[in-house]
Automatic annotation (TrEMBL):
Its cofactor is FAD; (6R)-5,10-methylene-5,6,7,8-tetrahydrofolate. SUPFAM superfamilies: Cryptochrome/photolyase FAD-binding domain, Cryptochrome/photolyase, N-terminal domain. InterPro entries: Crypto/Photolyase_FAD-like_sf, Crypto/Photolyase_N_sf, Cryptochr/Photolyase_FAD-bd, Cryptochrome/DNA_photolyase_1, DNA_photolyase_1_CS_C, DNA_photolyase_N, Rossmann-like_a/b/a_fold. The lineage of its organism: Bacteria, Pseudomonadati, Campylobacterota, Epsilonproteobacteria, Campylobacterales. Keywords: Chromophore, FAD, Flavoprotein. Pfam families: DNA_photolyase, FAD_binding_7. Residues 1-121 form the Photolyase/cryptochrome alpha/beta domain. This is DNA photolyase family protein. The keyword Flavoprotein applies. The keyword Lyase does not apply.
C-alpha cells in the first residue's frame, strides 16, 4: 500500500486521522494551491501564518521519522505528476465548500481520494432528526448531541508508528517570495501555540460568558485561526476545556458547537453558499459607494468605522463587532450579505467558509436559525453598552483619542461637534431601520 497523506486544514500530528489511518508506505504532502493563492494580496497575513505552520508541521513529522513534501501549483497538475509513482490512494480531511468539492472531484479522477472528517467534532451526515432530515435550528441540533458535549472526553486518533516514508526529494521548499508573497508581521497571538492560548484562556474562562462581549478586552480564547488551519483539532480543544471544569465550561463548549452547526448546514445545504438559505427575495441596495464606505470604515458611525479600520489592518474582528457591522451592512445599508461575506473572506485571518457564510446569513436574517428580521443592532447603543468609555474606538482612531466618549454613543454627535472634524453618518439609524423592515416584510410576503 502506497498512500499520499495530503495535509490541508489539519496542520498537526496530534489527533490526526491521516497519521492514524495511514498504512505501510506514505508520502505526506502540502500544496500551496495557486487556484487559491492567485486571488490573494501579496501581504496576506494568512499566507505567512500558513507558511510558518507548514514548516513547523514538516519539523514535527521529521520527529516521527517522516517528512513533508511541499508543492506550489495546481493540485490536479501536481497529482498528475505523482500518479506514475504508483500510489494507491490519497488520504485527506473533508472540506465542504464549493471550490473544495470541485477540486476533490477532479483529484479523485487522478488518484482515489479517501476523506476523513477530522476538522470537526461531528460527522455532519450522522446528526439527523428522527425522520432522517437535517436540523435547521441550532438549539435542537445541540440538544440532540448532548451525549457528546456531556462527555468528559472524546476519543482522539493515535499515530500509526509503523509507517514507512517513501523516498522523494523533501528538501525542495518554495520561499514565500518565489510564490509572490511578502513575509509580514503576525499579530502576537499567532506566535503562540494553541496549547499556550488554551493555558492563557484557562484563567479567563470563568468570566468568559460575562466578558466575551466587551470588545476592548481580551476575554476570548483566540483559538479560531488555529482551529481553522487545524494546528489543533476541535476534539483536542473540547478535551482540554473539559479538563478545566467550572461553571462556564459548557457556555464555551456551546459556542464551539456553533462552528459545528454552520459546517453541518453547509454540508446539507450547499446552495446556502450562494443563495439565501430561507429563500427570501430581498430588494438589496445596489449603491456601490455605500458598500465601499462600509469597507473602508468611512460610514460616519464611530463604532462601525473603528471596527472596519481595525479589521482592514489586522484581519481580526471581535465576534460582537462582527454582528454589529454585518447588521449595519445588511439592514441599515440594506446591502446583500454576500458582498460582506466575500469582503470578510478576503481578509479574515480565521476565515472558514461555513462559519463565515452562516454568520453572515444569520445577521442578514436569511439563514438557518437566523436573527429575526426586525432585530437590528443599533451601533450607538451597542458602543454605549459594551464600551462606555470608548476605549476601543480611541485605540483605533487616534484623532478621537481626546474626544468625550459620550459623543460616540449619540447619532451624529461627532459630525455636529465644533471641536471634532468627523464625517456625517451615511444613513439615519431610524430611517434605515424602517426601510429594512419594509424590505423584509415585502420579501416575506413574496414567499407567502
Amino acid at each position: 500500500m502506497k498512500q499520499i497523506l495530503w495535509f490541508r486544514r489539519d496542520l498537526r500530528v496530534t489527533n490526526s486521522a491521516l497519521l492514524s489511518k495511514a498504512k505501510d508506505e506514505v508520502m505526506p504532502i502540502f500544496i500551496f494551491d495557486t487556484d487559491i493563492l492567485n486571488s490573494l494580496d501579496k501581504e496576506d497575513k494568512r499566507v505567512s501564518f500558513i507558511y510558518k505552520s507548514v514548516l513547523s508541521l514538516k519539523k514535527q513529522l521529521k520527529a516521527l521519522g517522516l517528512d513533508l513534501a511541499i508543492f506550489y501549483g495546481k493540485p490536479i497538475e501536481i497529482f498528475s505528476k505523482l500518479k506514475p509513482l504508483g500510489f494507491d490512494e490519497i488520504l485527506c480531511s473533508c472540506d465542504f465548500d464549493d471550490y473544495a468539492k470541485k477540486r476533490d472531484e477532479q483529484v479523485d479522477k487522478i488518484i482515489t481520494l479517501r476523506r476523513y472528517s477530522d476538522s470537526y467534532i461531528i460527522k455532519p451526515w450522522n446528526a439527523l432528526k428522527k425522520d432522517g432530515t437535517p436540523y435547521k435550528v441550532f438549539t435542537p441540533f445541540y440538544k440532540n448531541l448532548s451525549f457528546i458535549w456531556e462527555s468528559d472526553a472524546l476519543e482522539e486518533f493515535e499515530v500509526n508508528k509503523d509507517l514507512k516514508l517513501i523516498t522523494y526529494d523533501y528538501e525542495q521548499v518554495a520561499s514565500l517570495e518565489s510564490m509572490g508573497f511578502d513575509e509580514v508581521e503576525l499579530p502576537s497571538f499567532l506566535n503562540k501555540t494553541a496549547h499556550e492560548l488554551i493555558e492563557e484562556f484557562s484563567s479567563k474562562i470563568e468570566d468568559y460568558e460575562e466578558q466575551r462581549d466587551i470588545f476592548y478586552k481580551s476575554a476570548t480564547s483566540s483559538l479560531a485561526v488555529h482551529l481553522r488551519f487545524g494546528l489543533i483539532s476541535s476534539v483536542e480543544v473540547f478535551n482540554k476545556i473539559k479538563k478545566l471544569k467550572g461553571a462556564n465550561i459548557e457556555f464555551f463548549i456551546r459556542e464551539l458547537f456553533w462552528r459545528e452547526f454552520y459546517n453541518y448546514i453547509l454540508f446539507h445545504f450547499p446552495k446556502s453558499e450562494f443563495e439565501n438559505f430561507n429563500g427570501l427575495e430581498v430588494s438589496w441596495n445596489q449603491n456601490e459607494e455605500d458598500f465601499e464606505r462600509w469597507c473602508e470604515g468611512k460610514t460616519g458611525v464611530p463604532l462601525i468605522d473603528a471596527a472596519m479600520i481595525h479589521f482592514n489592518k489586522t484581519g481580526t474582528m471581535h465576534n460582537r463587532l462582527r454582528m454589529i457591522v454585518s447588521s449595519f451592512l445588511t439592514k441599515n445599508l440594506l446591502i446583500d450579505w454576500k458582498k460582506g461575506e466575500r469582503y470578510f473572506a478576503s481578509k479574515l485571518l480565521d476565515y472558514d467558509a461555513s462559519s463565515n457564510i452562516g454568520s453572515w446569513q444569520w445577521a442578514a436574517s436569511t439563514g438557518a436559525d437566523s436573527v429575526p428580521y426586525f432585530r437590528i443592532f443599533n451601533p450607538y447603543t451597542q458602543s454605549a453598552k459594551f464600551d462606555k468609555e470608548g476605549l476601543f474606538i480611541k485605540s483605533v482612531i487616534p484623532e478621537l483619542k481626546d474626544v468625550d466618549p459620550k459623543l460616540f454613543h449619540k447619532e451624529g454627535a461627532l459630525a455636529n461637534s465644533l471641536f471634532v472634524d468627523y464625517i456625517k453618518p451615511i444613513v439615519s439609524i431610524e430611517l434605515s431601520r424602517k426601510r429594512a423592515l419594509e424590505a423584509f416584510k415585502g420579501a416575506k410576503n413574496e414567499k407567502a
